[in-house]
Amino acid sequence: MQWLIVTQDTSSLSKCNFLSILTKSSEVAALMTSINHVSNNIEIQDSQAGQRIDNFLIKHLKGVPKSHIYRILRSGEVRVNSGRKKPHYKLQPGDTLRIPPIRLAENTTAQIPKSIIDLLNDAILYEDKNLIVINKPAGIAVHKGSGLNFGVIEAFRQIRPEQSLELVHRLDRETSGCLLLAKNRHTLAQLHELLRHEKATHIEKTYFALVNGRWSQGKKTFDTGICKIKRSGEHLMQVDTEGDRAISHFEPMEIFPDCSLMKVTIETGRTHQIRVHAQYAGHAIIGDSKYGDKQANQHFRTMGLKRLFLHAARLYLPLETALTLEAPLSNDLEALLLQLR
Question: Which CATH superfamily is domain 4-105 in?
Answer without folding.
Answer: RNA-binding S4 domain (3.10.290.10)
